[in-house]
Specification:
With 180 residues, the protein is α+β, with helices and mostly antiparallel strands. Helix content is 22%, strand content 43%. The chain contains 3 helices and 9 strands; from the N terminus they run αβββαββββαββ. Strands 1, 2, 3, 4, 5, 6, 7, 8 and 9 form a 9-stranded antiparallel sheet that branches. The protein is elongated. The two termini are 43 Å apart.
Length: 180
């Protein structure tokens, strides 16, 4: 009798392990990263110390539909889209140009009704840096990316005079979760 109880308990435990592994595997199968998106902008010389300055406001075409199709899904399968990575890199040939003079960075999406959703921020910007990674927020960005176009804005706070034009490439990647 004890052997039977042990066998049943062992079987149930094994079944639970298999089911939890399948659930984890299915979760991984429905989650994927987008290709990197690149946006370039310039930060022009300025002396607006302590002020919030918009560096770029640009309408982007969304390629979410293509990303979904490449992974065997369509828009009806979207569960959520979150920012996974946002990196700003100085691309000036002159290696002396860096992000000095910028106290903080931010990036946001703006919807058709002019409502802004912050997608990533960095404060403070490390001294002498030529590449920085912003901290993504946890908002679901699917509503923005389902549109054929969305508006992205980059901005920052200036903490010292900027004397050189800083050429910047933003590199952005999303994590997409789809439903089966």
């Amino acid at each position: 009798m004890k052997k039977n109880v042990r066998l049943v308990v062992g079987f149930l435990f094994g079944a639970l392990l298999i089911l939890s592994s399948c659930e984890e595997l299915l979760g991984d199968l429905t989650k994927f990263d987008s290709n990197y998106k690149y946006v370039e902008f310039k930060i022009y010389p300025q002396d607006k110390i302590g002020e919030h300055v918009v560096f770029l406001t640009k309408t982007q075409e969304s390629d979410l539909t293509e990303e979904l199709q490449d992974n065997g899904f369509d828009e009806s399968n979207i569960d959520e889209v979150k920012l996974k990575e946002a990196t700003f890199e100085v691309i000036n040939a002159d290696t002396d140009v860096n992000f000095n003079g910028i106290a903080s960075f931010g990036a946001s999406f703006i919807d058709a009704g002019n409502q802004e959703t912050v997608i990533a921020e960095l404060n403070p910007v490390p001294e002498d840096s030529r590449e920085v990674t912003l901290s993504p927020n946890s908002d679901d960005l699917a509503a923005f990316l389902k549109e054929t176009e969305y508006t992205i804005q980059t901005y920052g706070i200036i903490d010292e005079v900027i004397t050189d034009t800083i050429e910047v490439r933003a590199k952005i990647k999303y994590e997409i979760k789809a439903k089966l």
